[in-house]
Amino acid sequence: MVQVCKRAHPSQVLLRKGLPTVPDEVSPQLLGLRGVAARAADPSDHSSLLAALDVVLKAALARFDDSRYSRSARALFGLPPGEAGTTLTARREAAARACGNEVHHFRKRVEPRLIERLAWMLQRDAEQFRGTRALAPRLAPAEGQSRLPNDVFAWELTEHEEHLSRVWAAVYALRAELLTMDRMASMEEGFQAITRQAVTAAWRYGLLRSEAERYREVYPPGSFGALGELSVDDIVDLAGWTPPMRDEQLSLLVLAAAENPDRDGFTSSLRAEVELGEAWSQPWLDRRTKNEEGHDTDN
Q1: Domain locations along the chain
Q2: How far apart are the C-alpha atoms of 241 and 205, rounded to whole Å?
Q3: Which domain of life is it from (predicted)?
Q4: Helix crossing, 247-259 with 274-293: angle to 10°?
Q5: Could you read off the pLDDT of 95-131 as tens digits, one per residue?
């Protein structure tokens, strides 16, 4: 795993210019990562792969999983508290300051560990895409109004695309709310704000699960369809991590969302389900509490 990135950065080549990446400074191994190709608008285009690599690197650095050195890792590549376009020496100085180290010690002892950790995170990201059996359809600008022929096959194909679009719309709608939850927990938002956002995410979860169940009823695994063998659970998992729910809790969420496509109606129908609400929101509230407890040590 680490060996892959060592081949990609035999002399820490990517660090020479930092971010944004420079074409001559990027190895083919990095551009060939599954997570990069999956995010590229056109995987056959080199500039598209470079843009996707920037996205992957920024995302990994934003979520760098060693809180003591997360700011240093970002500074090293020219992200705040560092500065893009500066020399590697300047970026090393900013990275050393961010963790309170002397520059020489940082370069010799800390920097190699940060590069190795980033390599592991990139490889883990790629492995996540290895098991993904479905990607959202790529879109292109319409050249004009679509006109279907008076043909059963064209109707069936369009109807499937309609169902598929609704599923992916629901996937991304839930993903947006889950990302908001993560950001709010990290920013230590108040209890009430996170709880309100948790209700919105639960509503989107119910809508997605309901939509995925409808899709699978019409297009079961192995039939005509673009989601392969993915189960309803697999489809929902594409949106991101959600708290584990008991079967009866899942049924309540799906039923409430199916009967109440608006958030207010969904909220009213589940107002008495206190245990369900706590099970859904508690993981983010717990994370917020841990952030508060570790705030002084992280800085």
Answers
A1: 2-130, 153-298
A2: 11
A3: Bacteria
A4: 110
A5: 999 999 999 999 999 999 999 999 899 888 888 776 5
